[in-house]
Amino acid sequence: MKTLYQTKFTDVGGSAAEALEDGMLITFKQGVPEGIVDYCYILAHGELLDDLQVGDQVNFDQQTYFITAIGNVANKNLRELGHVTWRFDSATEAEFPGSIHLQGTPPQSVAIDSVLIIKRDEE
């Protein structure tokens, strides 16, 4: 497996868990704009080594999900801002340009120091 992206969560906005209960995990790198910080899981920004693809493996604290759809600006947003809405709905078409859809139920929680790793099977 090739690691495409790896980072840790450094903070959790006060309302972020509510979105997670609705099947969404909203991430943003440190320095998130004040107006949306309360809804975000804040990342120590990592380097995205290659654009994500359907089928790539996403791990939140070793809980594994597979990407089923990627919005047309999600790779750019993740690379530049750490900002993506992770949707746990197995959709095969992205609902919004900045969303990445995953197969599986959302994690119960994501805490400070939780790890996010994205990997791809090497061919």
From TrEMBL:
One of the record's GO molecular function terms: transferase activity
UniProt keywords, alphabetically: Transferase
Keyword flag Transferase: yes
Top-tier EC class: transferase
Transferase among keywords: yes
Pfam families reported in the protein's UniProt record: PTSIIA_gutA
Coiled-coil region: none
Enzyme Commission number(s) of this protein: 2.7.1.198
Domain of life from the UniProt record: Bacteria
Name of protein: PTS glucitol/sorbitol transporter subunit IIA
Species in which this protein is naturally found: Bisgaard Taxon 45
